[in-house]
Design a protein that fits this description.
about 475 residues; globular; oxidoreductase; about 40% helix; 7-stranded mixed beta sheet; Ald_DH_C; 2 domains
Length: about 475
């Protein structure tokens, strides 16, 4: 155990009465201990956020300054926080430091984003404005795939709007968020950001707690439904960023050699542990063999290993349950007649490593096509008619994102516009940015994050009507 990690409550470092082990997925062994917050400590964090809210909401200029300073801290600490992130999450250090830097980029974007005040009437009778007011305390619950960046997706707009926050990261990746709380203590007033860590029970306490007015959650569909149910009795507002089973459709004029790198990169980024990554590829019969071969070639050439090692492209799957799930889905597909054009099994040795896997001769109805695998295994599905491919792509409870690939961008855009999802890309995938709204249709979520729309999700509309009589 090399470092002591503390929670942040009311601007102070706080230990918990108990701790829990954080596993390094590259070894499968416990690497560090994290505080396991008690219910009383959660209450203290919530009260601290509530007390800080009255002052924090008043000074917009101070909030913007603090977010800029927070971004500068992220930029100054990319290496140190990146190493913590790799230790607990598994991703290569280069990707981890990029995530930390990305957190800084998102903070800078929101620090300068306008909070509009709209005049909807100004005549002899009245001046009527629509303004956006903060909600109060926000409870934020974040996942293990991008623990730091997705915390900032919530923190930056919530704080800019004038809210305060209690943040709970995934118990698989709590360390980087604890470090975030530590490094921001100097730039955020006490109580504005509280970071508490623990297991699922802590999350349940948060979602049913009487203080927060909003819950912002990123995670699985099943847990998202439980969050919504817990929020309903108190009519808490919710933003739910949930799972995806994102299709990529290649049209008959796509060039396999030209698109293979982008397809592979968008399917296997972060070892496939991205909610909006490509999860299934639909390919016309005439191109099928070439696409499978091109993707398999890239999978076979990929370097898998401990994220701390130089030149590693893909680290381990983050946690044992997910590692077992990916293995189960791949084994199920192979037992059903699919062919592993590359990979197909765990890597021998310690840690949660799985070979980058391309599955051919697989159909809709196989679990790995119908469900969200969230790991380094990609099914490639053959189709004969593009209308049929579109129907199959849309025939799911998910609706996060999707993409269409063609030499004719206009034709691809027309088909992309018929995908039932929150983001439809043309000849690219996973092109995310702070100014673009991100959210899903159907079971993939409620509300959006990022851009002004994400900011508005942390506000309530208020009409200010001034009579002139």
């Amino acid at each position: 155990m090399s470092e002591k990690y503390a929670m942040t409550i009311d601007g102070q470092a706080v230990d918990a009465p108990a701790t829990f082990g954080v596993v390094n997925p590259a070894t499968g062994e416990v690497a560090e201990q994290a505080p396991d917050a008690s219910r009383e400590q959660l209450d203290a964090a919530m009260r601290s956020a509530q007390a800080a809210y009255a002052e924090w909401r008043r000074d917009e200029a101070a909030r913007r300054k603090a977010l800029h300073e927070a971004a500068d801290i992220m930029f100054a600490n990319t290496e140190e926080i990146g190493r913590i992130l790799t230790l607990e999450q598994g991703k290569p250090l280069a990707d981890a430091t990029m995530e930390v830097a990305g957190a800084g980029v998102w903070l800078k974007y929101f620090a300068d984003l306008e909070l509009p005040r709209e005049v909807i009437q100004d005549d002899d009778n009245a001046l009527v404005e629509v303004v956006r007011r903060p909600m109060g305390v926000v409870a934020a619950i974040t996942p293990w795939n991008y623990p730091l960046l997705l915390a900032i997706w919530k923190l930056a707009p919530a704080l800019l709007a004038g809210n305060t926050m209690v943040l709970k990261p995934s118990p698989f990746t709590p360390l980087s968020s604890l470090k975030l709380g530590e490094v921001l203590r100097d730039v955020l007033p006490p109580g504005v950001l509280n970071v508490v860590t623990g297991g699922d029970e802590l999350g349940a306490w948060m979602t049913s707690h009487e203080i927060p007015r909003k819950i912002s959650f990123t995670g699985s569909v099943a847990t998202g439904k439980r969050v919504a149910a817990a929020a309903a009795p108190d009519l808490k507002r919710v933003t739910l960023e949930l799972g995806g089973n994102d299709p990529a459709i290649l049209l008959d004029d796509a060039d396999p050699a030209a698109v293979a790198d982008k397809l592979f990169g968008a399917a296997f980024q972060n070892n496939g542990q991205v909610c909006s990554a490509i999860k299934r590829v639909y390919v016309p019969e005439a191109l099928y063999g070439d696409v499978v071969d091109a993707l398999a070639e890239r999978a076979k050439a990929a370097k898998v290993g401990d994220g701390m090692q130089e030149g590693v492209q893909f680290g381990p799957i983050n946690n044992k349950p997910q590692f077992e799930r990916v293995g189960e889905l791949v084994a199920d597909a192979l037992a059903g007649g699919a062919r592993a054009a590359a990979g197909g099994k765990p890597v021998d040795g310690p840690g949660y490593f799985f070979e980058p896997t391309i599955l051919a001769d697989v159909e809709d109805g196989a679990r790995i096509v119908d469900e969200e695998q969230f790991g380094p295994a990609l099914p490639v599905v053959k189709y004969t008619d593009v209308e049929e491919a579109l129907a199959r792509a849309n025939g799911t409870h998910f609706g996060l994102s999707g993409s269409v690939w063609s030499a004719d961008a206009d034709r691809a855009a027309e088909i992309a516009g018929r995908l039932e999802c929150g983001t439809a890309w043309v000849n690219t995938h996973l092109a995310l940015a702070p100014h673009q709204p991100f959210g899903g249709f159907k079971w993939s979520g409620v509300g959006v994050e990022n851009g002004p729309w994400g900011l508005y999700g942390f506000t309530e509309l208020q009409v200010v009507h001034r009579s002139k009589h």
